[in-house]
Design a protein that fits this description.
By secondary structure, this protein is α+β, with helices and mostly antiparallel strands. Helices cover 41% and strands 20% of the residues. The chain contains five helices and four strands. The chain has helices spanning 3-16, 75-83, 86-89, 92-103, 109-130; strands at 41-45, 50-53, 60-70, 139-148. Strands 1, 2, 3 and 4 form a four-stranded antiparallel sheet that branches. Strand 2 (50-53) and strand 3 (60-70) form a beta hairpin. Helix 4 (92-103) packs across helix 5 (109-130). The chain is elongated.
Length: 149
């Protein structure tokens, strides 16, 4: 009589405890190479605008600029930028006119505004090299823009 309940107990325990199947782990997805994080930056705004008289249209372009520098930039360079911005901004009017002549963007203000930061960055870094500094300007920012006919 004891055999029947004992058999039922063993059968129910076997039914409840199924063998555990271990699923194989999926293969890891290929890791895409990550781009290095951009270098930490500080920003400097020049208080004096660059003013250019456009010979073909007779208009005037006023551009107020700022620059992005690496956070690790030399303090002496920051002081030079603050105390004597003319050394860095001095020939930018010529650079703007050269860029306009090269690209022919005088009739398209939107294209001119888009093209200027790259041309100005090149010119400003060249000015830094001429001053004996490293070309640390990472980006030129147009803070204010006025194109007057």
């Amino acid at each position: 009589m004891l055999a029947l309940p004992l058999g039922m107990l063993v059968a129910s325990v076997m039914a409840v405890t199924q063998p555990v199947s271990i699923k194989p782990e999926p293969e890891p997805a290929p890791v895409e190479p990550t781009e290095p994080a951009p270098e930490a930056r500080i920003y400097h705004a020049f208080l004096t605008p660059v003013t250019v008289t456009l010979p073909k249209t007779g208009g005037t372009l006023n551009v107020l600029l700022g620059v992005a520098l690496p956070e690790s930039v030399d303090k002496a360079l920051k002081k030079k930028m603050q105390d004597s911005p003319d050394a860095i901004l001095g020939n930018l009017a010529t650079s703007i006119l050269d860029a306009i002549d090269t690209t022919g963007t005088i009739n398209d203000p939107a294209q001119l505004r888009q093209m200027l930061p790259g041309a100005l960055q090149t010119a400003m870094n060249a000015n830094l090299v001429a001053m004996g500094e490293t070309p640390d300007i990472l980006e030129v920012l147009i803070i204010d823009w006025a194109l007057l006919p």
